[in-house]
Structure prediction request, 482 residues.
Amino acid sequence: MKERKDLASYIRKDAILGKFFEVFLFEETPAQERTAQEVYLDEVDRCDIYLGILGASYGNVDARGVSATEREYDRAAKGRKERLCFVLRGVDRDPRQARFVARVNSDVVRNGFSDFDELRTGVYAALARFLEGRKLVSALPFDCSASANVRLKDLSVAKMRQFVKEARIERKWNVPANASPANILEALRLVDDDGRILNPAALLFGKDPQRFFPSSCVKCAWFLSDRVGKPMADHQIYTGDVFKTVDDATFFVLSHVSNMIGSHDAPDSAAAPSRFELPEPAVREAIVNAVCHRDYASAASVQVMLFKDRLEVWSPGPIPKGMTLAKMYRPHKSYPANPLLAYAMFLRKYVEQTGTGTGEIIALCREWGLARPEWRVEDGDDFVTVIPRPAGSVKTVEKTAAASVDKSVDKNVDKSVDKNVDKTCEDVFNILKTNPRATLDRVAIAIGLSVRGVEQAVKRLKKANRLRKVGGKKLGHWEVME
Prediction:
């Protein structure tokens, strides 16, 4: 099973787990004058933890018809070893393996997994709690700690329901739509053995996440030069859960770069193609990585800075152990600093396959005709992603100035809507197509119109069956009808 080797590599390279655990894999054992069974059973006798990963196949059997995995499990049980078992879901098992899994389930509390991300998350949480229980660490990593003292009343049930709804659609997550808040947290492994709610829950579902983690906001700035300093055209501090801060910060960047609207290519479509000067998925990926993998023990916040020649995204915390800057430019495994948070964001499709993020940013920049992105470490405390802008792409501040017009003078501003209704509708449509969770006041800022003008355009788009609102006012999103 490939997951075994990937999991061993992850444990060895994790900043916390790698200090305390030495992984034994039988296939890494050098040749010697002992039988295979003697070797792996001796290792079981020497170990502190037996970690079992059970898939569909029962495996090779000995003369008595028992597999090596079941032999190991029996030896661990006899030696009263700590047994952590993880069972692959949704597969047709060999009848012998099904019997073995049923037996394991009756002996210990076993966990299920559907993919490597979920397996890694579960093992990370289990091993971290093992260290805490043995008093080997005085404080758990942020991701596995309940240090913030989060209570169920501090979490938004509406956010949790929306999370389940989208995770079921995006990742076929098998948690029932009507699951209780407690069951949702349990499925995400955000509750420890004592029933305490872990820190990531506040970032994902908190009514006021910054009450627990003040630095979890995202600070955005737009500079008209190539360095930090005046003039600063715009500056925003975004608060809320991790999904909202990612969406808000992404929209901030896209609202301050050029968006080219092309001609109608398809005669049966009313939509005109659009193309931001920076690839939206690359911008989002850089911000997601910063929010997801940052050091939440740091008092610093994620910073998104748009200069005239580049976009920089600063993430507090050093580069993950096991990762190097050189690896950023080629395919690599993922080493998340916060696996529990990363898994939840994976379920909402904010994070894609492990280790593919930097490669996607490189490919998108190449497709856009941009220079190669860069990654660097500043003073050992900040990890920086740099995405270059096209030459001569400084956007004027005219739209920002127009958007600052008081809403009370809507009737004067709205005259511009009547002059070019089609263009206004296309501008609004393309922004909501790219950023389906954008609020109408943010759209107004982006295109330099009043909120009323944007609302009129939205009404026309909805009447033409090109746009509709899905979900509630606060947690819903826009869906375009091509």
Remarks:
- Residues 396-419 have pLDDT under 50 and may be disordered.
- The chain has 20 helices and 13 strands.
